[in-house]
Amino acid sequence: MSLEDNYLITVGLEVHTELRTKTKLFCGCANEFGAEPNTNTCPVCLGLPGSLPVVNRKAVEYAMRIGTALNCEIKHSVFHRKNYFYPDMPKDYQVTQYDEPTCINGYIELPITGKVVNIVRAHIEEDTGKSTHIGTSGRITGADYSLVDYNRSGIPLVEIVSAPDMVSGEEAREYVSELRSILVATGATDGKMEEGSLRVDANVSVRKVGTDELGTRCEIKNLNSLRSLVRAITYEARRQMEIVDGGGKVTQETRHWNEDLGRTSSLRSKEEAYDYRYFPEPDLSPLDPSVEEIEAIKANLGALPPKRRAALVELVGDSPSKSEIEQIQTVINFDLDDLIFAGIEKGVPAKLSLARCANEVAGLITGLDESYLVPSEKLLEVLVKESLGELTPTQSKAVLARVVADRAIDVAALIAELGFVASSSDEMDSLVGEIIAESPSEWERYLSGEDQLAGFFVGKAMKKSGGKANGKLVSKSLNDRRSQIQG
Amino acid sequence: MSDAQFVEMSAVDIAAGVRSGAFSAVEVVTAHLKQIESYDHEVKAFVTQMSDRALEAARAVDEKRARGEELGALAGVPVALKDNMAYRGVETTCSSKILRGWIPPYTATVVERLEAAGAIAIGKTNLDEFAMGSSTENSAFFPTRNPIDLNRVPGGSSGGSAASVAARFAPIAIGSDTGGSIRQPASLCGVVGVKPTYGLVSRYGLIAFASSLDQIGPFARSVEDSSLVLDVISGHDERDSTSLSGRSYDHQASDGGIEGLRVGVITEMMDGLSDSVNKALAQAIESLRSMGALVDEVSVPAAKFGLTAYYLIAPAEASSNLARFDGVRYGLRVEGKDMNETYELTRGQGFGPEVKRRIMLGTYALSAGYYDALYGKAQKVRTLIANDFDAAYSNYDVLISATSPTVAFEFNAKSDPLSMYMSDVCTIPSNLAGHPAMSVPFAGDEDGLPIGIQVLAPSFGESVMFKVASALEAAAKYRAVPQWASTEK
Amino acid sequence: MSNDDISIETTRHIAYLARLALDESEVREYAGQLSAILEHAEDIASLDLDGVAPMRHTLSVVNIMRDDEVRPSLDREEVLASAPDAQASMFLVPKIVGEE
């Protein structure tokens, strides 16, 4: 038996998501990624003496949307100060919520395993600035000095704290993936892990099979991708198992994930008790949303991924395969479900549009500017042509790529330009006639029932047409001719 | 008009004269700058003088008048600003080494409002470092002296502002009051000092000591002037979440009539007063009665716990508010081997003893294991105090007490922190409740040292508070005169 | 609240939390003074405050918020002019040991 068989892993996640407001949480500086250092700063987000915060209404609305989407109760809430010194935190305290957060007691259901993960709370807080560590290693340890940019300081965050309900890195990944698609669907965040607008800390502990009491946990920071999340949890759980198995004790601490080395390491140079000295932020009023406001948010939320997923599953059929479930997930993440429903209306099979949207379109629009609008009408035109056999799958994919790259392009003209024209039924039929004349013995065998010879004819047709023949239409022509002959 | 006349003139008269063209803002400002030149080397009210800017601003006011434009309520009126208010382009120090040299890139809302009304900022005044103290001896730079008796403290923490008005350096000044920092020095310097209702005046740009208690207010030599200044600086500011919308104070000349007003004398604040202060309070009660007020003693039982609650809540908030002075973005940095040591050295050397003491106390009160017993309990006491005040105000229009248990004391007289803290025993409860209160000079002791009477009112009760203060002012037979002026006589 | 004096060790810990470098005489002085001040605070320790709500905010207002509208930021040069040390338009700080 391996070590892993003797232990159970417990994972709880803290997910920080940046909100897509125009301005920061407490001041009117722009909330934008990638600006020149320290250009989006003012007395408030620099923590200059005498400055005071005023809450961004939109940030609170987004937080309530998130809470509602996560099935939380929306409560009266109070901002607190969390006191600790760090150079990228300009006031040397963080304004956050403590014993009275805006959202509590929610849950989400994981799409693939169907597992329910409970959400303990989702609260509003401000982001810190960003330190760049200068020195030989480029990391905190070993740096000679650091440079601080406060553009990110004060950007609104919602921190979503899960219950320790997950049992593996894979499950944590599924949770974050589902959470992300829900968050994006609320419109509150763009969910871009690569830009740091979605950041995950993982609390990991292990315990021996057969015991109930949770083991001592470690918090892992710096998980910048789903891949890191899975690797880090797996590594950390193994590390803890080895400690416990060797008769040792896990120390409760914060650990840093090093993606290059593939391991977690303790960051603390000296053991110090954390004492954040929380107290109610006297510069801000409590938030107390009315029942009407909460209801309005619920009403305006629109269809969320779980509901949208159910609708897509229904389209695909009774028991979708794992790859289909994953395709559905992708389609939801990229907001392409409307395209699939529109395709149904025009006779495009759900499985075809699902595959093209998840496997082609999603990949093509990844990394494009946020303001990019998917040219749904034109994509649909391509899918319709493919479903009618006017484009081969290969041709269809090539056309989709061009349409995504140039939203203004004319689909018909593009197809003509690429020479994908029209293998119309008539053309194919006469082509098939020529081939039959050239290969009488194969034709005989086909007529006598050797269906596999259809492939021979399609291949010939391809060769003769220089690859432009439509295999579907060739097969159709062969079939029609046989039916006619055989009555 | 002579310089001597200008420096004795009220803000109301200066503004009227400048508006009518009877004299110019430049004449007014010049006279005050001369007064500063003559006497501030003795008083040391100012950390930073703004003479050139002041003259330039005065010329701008005069030019505005020449162009026929309308002038504001404080046209040409010199104002001294406590040096814990941000002023763009002018060094702002909080009388601390840790902030020395800091040039704010923005200006406090109150200062903007004063200047928009035509007031002329003539300098930044000395204070107890970060407004922590009751004598201005805690300034990291130098102590300010009481103009009425240069051997005594002006009180604090707004000692420089109080002294500048008493010394005729400016007819009005701005201070901040967290536990009595306007009212106590006003009492000790023989001027009027007002702490408005919490939320009436924007704190944006006031360098915070204790955010839930701090409130900006005016000093003046008359109740009317202080009322006018409050009118100018009060009102909603969208940059301060604790500034109330729809609330401002409207100045109106008091008719002085207090007949039938119910005035309560706070029992808990009658203990521990010096004889002369006790006597002055008794006279004040008599005067109010003679003017037709109904005066009784009233108990505000929880007020006696105010000092304790204050010395947990204020340091707790301060420990957090002052964390940002860390040597990273502005102010002093004492470089250590790493960031942590840099923090410790910068703060250890940049803050003075009283500031460090309060940061320590506040850090302790908030720390794990003590929060409930200390900070949490103090917050509950705050509720009790507010409730007890509410009960008192159900039967009384205003309450009164002495402002300070004693007259101005000599330098180094209170080296024990606790005895210094006792100076604020009468003023602290209003801050805890968020209520307005003011000190009005009423009497002098046998040595001619000023004694102020405190008038307290419920939230947004400024109008009735000013009415009673005006009555006391009218009844007062005492007027504080700078030491140099009384010896000249 | 306890009657125990604040120990030297506790005083040092508090000084560390507050990032204040104190010399030995300051540590002793503050330990004594904090004990005295907290002893004075004993008067509220005996109060029965069960059922009394803490005053968490001075004003009883809620939902003070602003609209999500961009306002001009400060001029960067003015911001950096106050910095004790800067490089590449960023604030330069000594090396950070450990985390948080």
Report mean pLDDT of chain C, rounded to a whole number: 89
Form type of chain C: flat
Write down the CATH class of the domain at 1-45 in chain C. Mainly Alpha
First-to-last CA distance of chain A: 66 Å
Category by helix and strand content of chain C: mainly alpha
Query: Beta-strand level of the residues of chain C, as a percent range?
Result: 5-15%
Number of helices of chain C: 4
**Order of H and E elements of chain C:** HHHEHEE
Uncertain parts of chain A: none
Structural class of chain A: alpha+beta
Described by strand count, sense and barrel closure, the largest sheet of chain C is: 2 strands, antiparallel
| CATH fold naming of the domain at 1-45 in chain C | Histone, subunit A
Q: Which strands sit side by side, in order, in the main sheet of chain C? A: 2-3
- Low-pLDDT parts of chain C are none
Largest interface: B-C, 69 and 54 residues
The CATH architecture of the domain at 1-45 in chain C can be given as Orthogonal Bundle
What descriptive keywords fit this protein?
heterotrimer, B: 489 residues, alpha/beta, Amidase signature (AS) enzymes, eleven-stranded mixed beta sheet, globular, C: 100 residues, mainly alpha, Histone, subunit A, two-stranded antiparallel sheet, 4 helices, 37% helix, flat
Provide an overview of this structure:
The complex is a heterotrimer of chains A (487), B (489) and C (100). Chain A is α+β, with helices and mostly antiparallel strands and 487 residues long. Chain A folds into 3 domains: 3-297, no CATH class; 306-411, no CATH class; 425-486, Arc Repressor Mutant, subunit A, CATH 1.10.10. Helices cover 39% and strands 19% of the residues of chain A. Chain A contains 15 helices and 15 strands. Chain A has helices at 57-69, 169-186, 226-245, 291-300, 305-316, 322-333, 337-345, 350-365, 376-387, 393-405, 411-417, 425-438, 440-447, 454-465, 471-486; strands at 7-18, 55-56, 73-74, 79-83, 93-97, 103-109, 116-126, 130-135, 143-149, 156-162, 198-208, 218-223, 253-258, 263-266, 279-280. In chain A, the strands form 3 sheets. Chain A has a 9-stranded mixed β-sheet, covered by helices on one side. In chain A, strand 6 and strand 7 (116-126) form a beta hairpin. By secondary structure, chain B is an alpha/beta fold. Chain B has a domain at 3-257 and 453-488: Amidase signature (AS) enzymes (Alpha-Beta Complex), CATH 3.90.1300. In chain B, 40% of the residues lie in helices and 12% in strands. Chain B has 17 helices and 11 strands. In chain B, helix 3 (25-43) runs antiparallel to helix 4 and helix 10 crosses helix 13 (372-393). Chain B is globular and about 65 Å long. With 100 residues, chain C is mainly alpha-helical. Chain C has a domain at 1-45: Glu-tRNAGln amidotransferase C subunit, N-terminal domain (Histone, subunit A, Orthogonal Bundle), CATH 1.10.20. Chain C contains 4 helices and 3 strands, in the order H-H-H-E-H-E-E. Chain C has helices at 8-17, 24-40, 42-45, 76-81, and strands spanning 65-66, 86-87, 90-94. In chain C, a hairpin with a 2-residue loop joins strand 2 and strand 3 (90-94). In chain C, helix 1 (8-17) packs across helix 2. The two termini of chain C are 30 Å apart. Chains B and C meet through helix 10, helix 11, helix 12 and helix 13 of B and helix 1, helix 2, helix 3, helix 4 and strand 3 of C.
